[in-house]
Amino acid sequence: MDRLPQLRAAAGLGPLPVSALVTSTPPPESAKNFSLPEAPVTITFKEPPSEIDQDTMETLAAFYKDAAEVQGCVSTIRTVMQELQQRHSENMQTVDEARSKVLRGEIDDLSRQTSDTAKAAKDKLDAMSKNTAKLKETPDSIAANSAIIRIEENQYTHLVLKLTVAMAEYQRHQAANEAFYKAQTQRQIKIKYTNPDGSAIDDATAAQLAEQVLENNTTSYIFQQSKDVLASIIETRNDIYRIEQSMRDLNQLFNDLAFLVNEQGELMDVILANVQQSTRYVEKGREELKKARKYQKKSRKKLICLIVCVCIVIALFVVVGVLAGTLKVH
């Protein structure tokens, strides 16, 4: 029953006009088929990165691209180093002059590739170091890029050490090859040549003649005994020259790497000093904790003694009170 007309009549109002009557209309068919989703739908809006975040991403992306190039150079050096060792080993064992000539050409190419790759890696490391230094030009820049600087310096140190280790290994291989070629020269002289009286050449004389060959002095009458052997010895001497030249080319690179390692060594010294200082603080903290525990134990003992004394005093008062009451009764 609609009570709205009665209320209007009680208030002295007339009935509603027909045009004002609200009639309910059935919902459309589309509304009938509408149903609420079973689970709430969450709509999220991802904000675009800020200008600072974008600069950080671009800086790190460029740095890691350079780092990947240095890693690739180190891998190339190790691969070429293995191939170079194989060529040297074969050249030391072959007796075929044509094959030996081919091997010497390949050795020259591989040695040059190793040197060029190492220089490229070193130049890239220099560029990376300069880019990191730009982030440390002002205190504000250091504060804003502290995380990036820390990441780049740690990765830079790792790459410098990897390149240094690879080049040190290459240098050891070259020194071993040089020593083998020198020993081979002495063996050739000792086996192929003899003294004027026909006796065998001893080790000391062979070593002396080998040094003469290395000094490009082949005028000794002993070398006139066989021109073919002398030509082979000269080729071996040229192998030694090539190795020494490659090692001289790497000398400056090693000096630069040593400087870089020294710079990073200062950073590592600072880190080590901080670690040692932290260790001292930890040890000091442990000592303080031990003292605190001892003090805590002493405090507990004092508290227990105090409680015992109070209990004894209370017990004495109780006993005295009981005895006094007993005496009064008697």
TrEMBL record:
The keyword Transport does not apply. It comes from Leptomonas pyrrhocoris. This is Qa-SNARE protein. Belongs to the syntaxin family. The chain crosses the membrane at residues 303-327. One of its GO terms (biological process) is vesicle docking. Keywords: Coiled coil, Membrane, Transmembrane, Transmembrane helix. It is a single-pass type IV membrane protein. Residues 230-292 form the T-SNARE coiled-coil homology domain. Gene3D superfamilies: 1.20.5.110, 1.20.58.70. Residues 81-138 form a coiled coil. It comes from the Eukaryota. One of its GO terms (molecular function) is SNAP receptor activity. It is found in: Membrane. It holds the Pfam family SNARE. GO terms for cellular component: endomembrane system; plasma membrane; SNARE complex.
